[in-house]
Amino acid sequence: MSVTVFKRKMTGLVEHSKSVYQFANVALLSSLPNRCQLCQHRIEQLDYQRLFPNQVLSGICQVCLAASLYQHEVCLGCGREIALLQAYCGKCLKLTPMLVVAPCSYHQGLGPLIAAIKYQQQCAPLNAITQQLATRINQLIEHKLIRAPQVLVPVPLHPNRLRQRGFNQAWLIANRLSQLLDIPLDDSSLTRVVDTAPQADLSGKQRRKNCFNAFELSDKVQYQRVALIDDVVTTGTTVDEIARLFSQQFIYVQTWCLARAEAPGLLD
């Protein structure tokens, strides 16, 4: 068997496995009792589907979801509350850090649900939260505060971690966003080549050391604008390390995530 034929068969097998997983995930969610994981009340669909046709709310009720979203405008650089819909606060305007788009703060409601997606495989709320992220993205594009990327790139897991967890939550989010926004997904150009320690309990300095040279980017990337997709952005160490690789090829990067964990004291 030639190398080309082998690669084609392996690619087909991977795509088939992804499709099987997605189908199994949807089938499982539809068979479970539809109760909010935050308040435990039964989820009613009527009002939600009137606002979002063809969308099924699962894992979180409309009240808890609405209460957990940003109730004010935030700086896309640092997450600080700002008075007007604009990209940066005054401080970030001088620094122009990477844009981070999220529909909510990790610390104000949805944090436990997003953590449960990653660590407990409780994926029921993922579609509803991703829908809110897509709505936020469309709003910012409409107001010309961000430009639509040419491709979505999920933050990859190392193969060892992927085997252990069974799925990459960033890929699930990117796949759903690709469907909602009609933007292609590229999950082959960026790879994680170092099996890094979990970031959760590390300091900022330890996170930077942990992620340094942990990723590898193909030198054949043909895009000029990409959006990195992850579940949560905390210190930004991971996405900054990846953005460094893209910038070496003069590729503009922004980050889209389900929630943002702001720096201590920023929300006080």
TrEMBL record:
UniProt-listed CDD domains: PRTases_typeI
InterPro entries to which the protein is assigned, alphabetical: ComF/GntX_DNA_util-trans, PRTase-like, PRTase_dom
Superkingdom classification of source: Bacteria
Gene3D superfamilies, alphabetized: 3.40.50.2020
Coiled coil spans: none
Family statement drawn from the similarity comment of this UniProt entry: Belongs to the ComF/GntX family.
Protein name from the UniProt record: Amidophosphoribosyltransferase
Annotated organism of origin: Shewanella saliphila
